[in-house]
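Lab meeting, action items carried over

1. Structure of the two-component assembly. Owner: GW. Status: complete.
Input record:
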Amino acid sequence: MKPLLRRTLTALATLGRGTGTAFLAYLGLAGTLLLAGLCLISVGLPLLPYGLRLQRGLANLERRRLRRLGYEVPEPYAPLPHGWGPSMRTAFTDPATRRDLAWLAAHGIGGLALGLIVFSLVSNSIRDITMPLWWYLIPPDAGLTTMWDAPVDSWDIAAVTALTGPVWLLLVFALAPAIARGQTYAGRRLLGPVDGMDLTARVAQLTRTRAAVLDAHTAELRRIERALHDGAQNRLVGVAVLTGAARRALTRDPATADAILERAQTGAEEALAELRAVVRSILPPVLEQRGLHGALSALAAGCAVPCTFEADIPGRLPTSVEATAYFAVAEALTNVSKHSRATTASVEVTRTGDRLTVTVRDDGKGGADGDGGSGLNGLKGRVEAHDGTLLVDSPRGGPTMVRVELPCGS
Amino acid sequence: MRIVIAEDDALLREGLTLLLSAEGFDVAGAAGDPETFLALVDEKKPDLAVVDVRMPPTHTDEGIRAAVAARRAHPGLAVLVLSAYVEQSFATDLLADGADKIGYLLKERVGRVEAFLAALRRVADGGTAIDPEVIAQLFATRRAGDPLERLSAREREVLTLMAEGLGNTAIAEKLFVTPNAVHKHIRAIFAKLELPPDERVDRRVAAVLRHLEGTRR
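Predicted assembly:
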């Protein structure tokens, strides 16, 4: 019952503010129409900039209200040049002006109507519930009516009215949140930037990150190829050469042959170690075995600087996201151990909705650079390839914070 | 025979030095990067250089470029290039200035010590040693209308051995045929590839490889 009450009261408060802006929009609409009329006889022309400022002021009021409700409605206006002529021309060709006007009409009429309906419903149902009291206090010939304009002329009708009142109140409880949301609809649709513009920016961003994906992918393949060719393969060639040498020495000088074979064996072991390292760098097996939580806590535990670990990651995430988060923490902790001279560090992982946030902090000397350091730079490419963001906050003198945010498409 | 080695992997450098010294070669020095290698060649005036293709700083074709530079600075220097994998263009770059005293082998061939030493001596004596893989790759990537299509299976075998740098007698022994038969095959190969016949091993290897590379562009 309590949450329902709170929900309704919140909705009514929202509706109250919304109806306020709607009333102002209604006045603004009337003012705009008046101004348009005055412009026809050219008296209004000098007043146009004030009209525009008033209209934008009202729209911004509503934008602020919407933002406080958690909707994103950035100001879409094109910047106005100086001078009456140029600024009016810009204002009139700006699609935002037209959309503001449309909002003025929609919110000033529709939004106001919605608000008035709800509040009259509230006040009328309260009056109906308290009808017996009114019947008792007010002279019968004062013309009391119910919500439906039926005359209240007896105790019976007053009592029945009191019983129907809660029904209307329940209706308010049920509908207020939806109506409050409906009242924001015009603002959400009309006061933000045109959808197409948003999409253009999004496409540009996706194109960029897609190129980054391909780059990161190619760079990764190149790295693996290098690691295999110059690492493990070279070791194995060395083993083959040493084995060949040992075979040649076998009859001539068995002692030397044994020494060479010893070297060859070491080479083979090194090749195995390199292969393990390459495999780990592609996709750490620990992720598969222990999940992101286990893998990250192992990383934190293995850090040279005492490191606390806190994580709230219910369930498994896509493999690529887990791997990126893992490498981000690995890279950040490597930097902590190598460069920061920190005495403590912390790793914090949270998941809110479809975003995974990984934060690594240390109390070291700071000065880490998200653009210069090749490790962090590589990480940035990897993170952006996943449509995520990397934030490095590391003033000289510390402390340092590295935060990676990844969409995890839940 | 005095040898200088250029190889950036320490284990392999050590292995090569050990192997060649044990076989009685005079290993005058071993370098891990192109600059040191070229300085070593200037200083020690070796008869032969063993060079790895991938070396610092970019680990791409530094070895090939170092080998070509060393040959330009010291005409008559025999060069045996070792590579982790076969790359047709590397062979062509090497052979651009003639095929005598040039070798291009896969690294792992070194483990087959006898064959490796034979190739090494052949190159030092003025011959050629091209890895069979190079020829195999040529066959693998041939296109329709490629002159290689016209060769019979036996002729391909002969071409591969020829590219490795073997002479007619050695090829005949390997294939269990008479030297005369090999001679006939080689004449057929040159005719099919429309090349002037040449009896000198290095010349004909170069001619064949350059021709094949050319028809592929």
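2. GW to write a short summary for the group page. Key points so far: The interface with chain A takes residues 8-9, 11-12, 14-16, 18-19, 22-23, 54, 59, 84-85, 107-108, 110-113, 116 of chain B (CB under 8 Å). The first helix of chain B runs from residue 10 to 22.
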